[in-house]
Amino acid sequence: MVTGGSRGLGAALTRALAADNWRVIATARTAADLQALTDQISGPRQPNSPTSGEVVTVTGDVSDADHRRTIVQAAGGRVDVLVNNASALSRPGGGLTRLEDARPADLRFVYDVNVLAPVALVTDLLASLRAAEGVVINISSDAATGPYEGWGVYGSSKAALDQVSNVLGAEHPELAVYALDPGDMRTQMHQEAFPGEDISDRPLPDTVVPAIQRLIAERPPSGRYLAADLLAADRITAEGVLA
């Protein structure tokens, strides 16, 4: 299951998992974006291309309890991997703001999406995750650890998500629970954080997907990981430096 699955890292991961023949529940707030994703995945294939897995899309807001019940039902009785990727930078149209200018409603909106919804979704899916001895990946940010001006609302929510991940991993040793910092990416949300700036130098979200695939495949100890470190380890291994 991938939340925020219609754009950016969520869409890139959904495409990759489908190509690997997974059944993916992809959820997002915009039906048109989800439809564009499924059209892309189910488009014409080249001869001898691998069989694609199934992508089930569910439109809604992960901070809404009714929507979470719907996606839990769509998942059925077993969930091997849950990726809490859906994130809010600010209230719609709000943009980044200094903490002195943030209102309680600003924090409440961001925390509902970035912290409370992932906790609730893990709780809602706990039986299904346990049945699979599953993997939970909560997408974090370097804003969780660095004092970036204007990023206090978003960054503090990601810091809370990191600690939530730590505690879930301690309370549920049968699961693998990760907070993953993907690094800067060329996404719509990143562009919204830097309006009018050229962010074409940022890597595409697809470049981060192998880091997530590595967590799923190798299942290291629960904890916080940097995508750059996982990708660097992959490169070293490929060069034969590590066995």
Helix proportion of residues, in percent? 40-55%
Structural class: alpha/beta
β-strand number = 7
Hey, roughly how much beta strand do the residues contain?
Answer: 5-15%
Overall form: globular
Order of helices and strands: EHEHEHEHHEHEHHEH
Largest sheet: 4 strands, parallel
Low-confidence stretches: 46-51, 238-243
Taking all Cα atoms into account, the compactness measure Rg is: 18 Å
Give the end-to-end Cα distance, rounded to a whole number of Å: 32 Å
Side by side, the strands of the main sheet go: 4-5-6-7
Q: Mean pLDDT, rounded to whole units?
A: 88
Number of helices: 9
Folded structure, characterized:
The chain is an alpha/beta fold and 243 residues long. Helices cover 45% and strands 13% of the residues. It has nine helices and seven strands. Strand 2, helix 2 and strand 3 (55-59) form a beta-alpha-beta unit. The protein is globular, with a radius of gyration of 18 Å. The protein starts with a strand and ends in a 5-residue tail after the last helix. Residues 46-51 and 238-243 have low confidence and may be disordered.
Identify the notable features of this structure and list them briefly.
single chain, globular, disordered C terminus, four-stranded parallel beta sheet, alpha/beta, three-stranded parallel beta sheet, 243 residues, 9 helices
In short:
By secondary structure, the chain is α/β, with parallel strands linked by helices. The chain has nine helices and seven strands; from the N terminus they run E-H-E-H-E-H-E-H-H-E-H-E-H-H-E-H. The C terminus is likely disordered.
